[in-house]
Specification:
5 helices, 7 strands, globular, 25% helix, seven-stranded mixed sheet
Length: 162
């Protein structure tokens, strides 16, 4: 699920396949996957909302495009992500937000995705350009290497991000 929501609309916005193609990784888990998909996420195991990724044991390399409503939710998911320490998290690049300033320095690298990501709707169509950009937060060597070779945008390693 994606980090973007408009008043009265669904917050289910899926990561487009080109992001995964560029990363070139097979993730062990998608820890916040919608119940019915998306079929293009390269993962061995998907954790649906019914299974609640916050209370599931995480294994290996994780992909996280969590439901980011209120900043309290962002903090809960990101705390769990960085405690796990191995994966890539997709977040809105709201650099002045307190939650972003709290967690971005914990990333081993940040990819500032350009251009703005047009997410996929549950019906398979592509949505409009969101009002904010997207950042990919890497935790662990494999994730950092994937961001560095992805070509998705400028990559800032921890030494420069902190």
């Amino acid at each position: 699920m994606a980090a973007y929501e408009k008043q009265g609309e669904s917050d289910e916005w899926y990561t487009p396949p080109y992001i995964f193609d560029a990363l070139g990784l097979l993730f062990d888990m998608d820890i916040a996957c919608p119940a019915n998909g998306p079929p293009h996420t390269p993962c061995i195991k998907w954790v649906s909302p019914l299974q609640n990724g916050l209370f599931t044991d995480w294994e290996g390399l994780v992909w996280m495009n969590a439901p980011f409503g209120h900043q309290r939710h962002k903090r809960i998911w990101l705390r769990r992500f960085f405690d796990h320490g191995n994966g890539i998290a997709l977040v809105p690049d709201r650099t002045s937000a307190p939650w972003f300033q709290e967690f971005a320095p914990l990333a081993d690298a940040i990819c500032w995705v350009s251009p703005k990501v047009k997410f996929v709707k549950p019906d398979g169509t592509t949505g409009d350009s969101p009002g904010t950009g997207t950042a990919l937060l890497a935790s662990g060597r494999l994730s950092v290497a994937a961001l560095a070779r992805s070509g998705l945008g400028i990559v800032t390693p921890r030494a420069l991000a902190a």
